[in-house]
Structure to design on (221 residues):
């Protein structure tokens, strides 16, 4: 018998004759070099950032069971843009916008006999992020509102015409994060925060017939 305070001791199973070496499944190396400049225009009311980033993605896939290489060595690169602007409407009001592209390693096909390219790494893809927003700064009060969009391709196994144009499983069309923080002047170091998160509906299947309702939660601290 055993209980919460005196647990039973069981003999450890023997592992004699069992070999379980640690083997790599994937090896990746990401490098990048960026150059950017931010000139000020209109008496410093307009700040414009322009730049370029050269990214390289290298990698190798391995057979997890044997440790042998699987597929050719992966070596891809691309030069992507980045841009941003901040315009001061008033000393305490600013509008901003940004656009950034990034390079990421492609998806890896699952190891399965049901497909023709098991373990193959797909070509790298470019992810894109767009954002616009406004900022208000009035002494001890700071507020920011922003809208952004992230886009990237997704991989699928045995793609069919019925899945073209459908939304990815578990990916909402929109999310809303609203937060506030107040520093209590009467007690240095004390801050009160409030946060609300809203996530729109998502789909639980590839053909978008099973739907998960959107939800909202709030938390205070």
């Amino acid at each position: 018998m055993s209980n919460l305070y005196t647990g039973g001791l069981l003999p450890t199973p023997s592992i004699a004759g069992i070999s379980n070496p640690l083997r790599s499944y994937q090896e990746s190396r990401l490098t990048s070099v960026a150059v950017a400049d931010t000139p000020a225009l209109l008496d410093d009311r307009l700040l414009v950032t322009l730049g370029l980033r050269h990214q390289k993605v290298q990698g190798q896939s391995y057979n997890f069971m044997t440790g042998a290489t699987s597929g050719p060595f992966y070596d891809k690169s691309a030069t992507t843009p980045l841009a941003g602007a901040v315009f001061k409407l008033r000393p305490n009001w600013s509008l901003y916008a940004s656009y950034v592209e990034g390079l990421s390693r492609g998806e890896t096909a699952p190891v399965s006999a049901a497909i023709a390219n098991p373990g193959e790494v797909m070509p790298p893809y470019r992810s894109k992020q767009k954002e616009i927003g406004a900022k208000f700064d009035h002494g001890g009060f700071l507020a920011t509102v922003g809208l952004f969009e992230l886009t990237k391709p997704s991989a699928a196994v045995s793609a069919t015409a019925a899945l073209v144009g459908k939304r990815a499983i578990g990916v909402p069309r929109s999310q809303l994060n609203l937060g506030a923080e107040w520093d209590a002047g009467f007690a240095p170091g004390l801050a009160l925060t409030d946060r609300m998160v809203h996530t729109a509906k998502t789909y639980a299947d590839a053909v978008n017939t099973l739907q998960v309702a959107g939800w909202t939660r709030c938390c205070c601290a």
Observations:
- The chain has a mean pLDDT of 83.
- The chain is about 0% helix and 55% strand.
- Residues 162-221 form one domain.
